[in-house]
From TrEMBL:
InterPro entries: FabA_FabZ, FabZ, HotDog_dom_sf. Its main location: cytoplasm. HAMAP family: FabZ. Its EC number is 4.2.1.59. It comes from Limosilactobacillus equigenerosi DSM 18793 = JCM 14505. Involved in unsaturated fatty acids biosynthesis. Catalyzes the dehydration of short chain beta-hydroxyacyl-ACPs and long chain saturated and unsaturated beta-hydroxyacyl-ACPs. GO terms for molecular function: (3R)-hydroxyacyl-[acyl-carrier-protein] dehydratase activity. This is 3-hydroxyacyl-[acyl-carrier-protein] dehydratase FabZ. Keywords: Cytoplasm, Lipid A biosynthesis, Lipid biosynthesis, Lipid metabolism, Lyase. Signal peptide: none annotated. It is an enzyme of class 4 (lyase).
């Protein structure tokens, strides 16, 4: 059962179609962790060119999807609510499997550190319980400059 719908997610983060990748949030412990879901479909625009005949989700977009899940966790914190989280660094990114149309990608984010204007998370993407990507992501939080 989803605890946040796609519309609630879009009310929190600025990403919109075609680059809003989180379908729903499964569970969340504020300021600690989140599990979110991305249903990967053949209709994704990136599959037209990556790769025809063997569609694979680009690694950079897997990182982007993890970053969106992490930004939900960060922006649900009372200290950062109604602000914007910008990806500042990606460390130790490892890709261990391919993500293909029809996969359900689960995004597991654990908060490691929070400071006045930044957060660091451990991020893991899985498909069918198998790790396909992991990374440490650093975010810088700033005031929202425009209404979404």
């Amino acid at each position: 059962m989803a605890i946040m719908s796609a519309q609630e997610i879009m009310d929190l983060i600025p990403n919109r179609y075609p680059i809003c990748y989180i379908d729903y949030v499964d569970e969340m412990v504020p300021d600690e962790s989140i599990v979110a879901t991305k249903n990967v479909t053949i209709n994704e625009s990136f599959f037209r060119g990556h790769f025809p005949g063997n569609p694979v989700m680009p690694g950079v977009l897997i990182i982007e999807t993890l970053a969106q899940a992490a930004s939900i966790l960060i922006l649900k914190s009372p200290a950062f609510y109604k602000k914007t989280a910008y990806l500042g660094a990606v460390k130790n990114a490892k890709f261990r499997g391919m993500v293909k149309p029809g996969d359900v990608m689960k995004l597991h984010i654990e908060m490691l550190k929070v400071r006045a204007r930044m957060g660091i998370v451990n991020a893991v993407a899985t498909v069918d319980g198998k790790k396909v990507c992991s990374a440490e992501l650093t975010f810088v939080v700033a005031e929202r400059t425009e209404k979404i």
